[in-house]
Write a structure and sequence with these properties.
Distance between the termini: 13 Å
Helix content: 40-55%
Shape: elongated
Radius of gyration: 17 Å
Number of domains: 2
Number of strands: 2
Amino acid sequence: MCFHVLVHQGKQDLEKALKSTLPSLSKIPGARIIVTRDQDRGDCKVVKQTLTELVGNRCDAPILYRVVCRELECWFLGDLSAIEKAFPRFNAARYAGKKEYRDVDKIMNADQVILDMIPQYKGRQYLPKLETASKISPHLSIDGNISTSFRHFVSGIKKMLT
């Protein structure tokens, strides 16, 4: 099995690709499509419905929609040990078990929360999202992440593969 990730520059770029690129991709034999988008401040069900309507009947392959609760960075907060592995000066034990990190999918501005947590980023105004994601992602625990949104994403992938 192989996979290909298409990165989009914002929601409008993703929505445009769903109409233009997705139909041809879905014709590739054996293709399965997974569409993810940040919830941000929107309603999950409305976001998912919007994506579904944009695709309509343009997709010839099995398709899975997953709305990332709030922001992708919440998935990182769901696995503090992954952050610690990526950034050894970060102390996961300092945050583990704290009330505000029990339901990471409710955290607003997760990128700012991560920026404030990581000592290597002290003094920066903005989280370097691509750099941060590329450092943390390889360490994420598929089974140990406490983000409900992340777990739904993983279970959706597993269902598509069976």
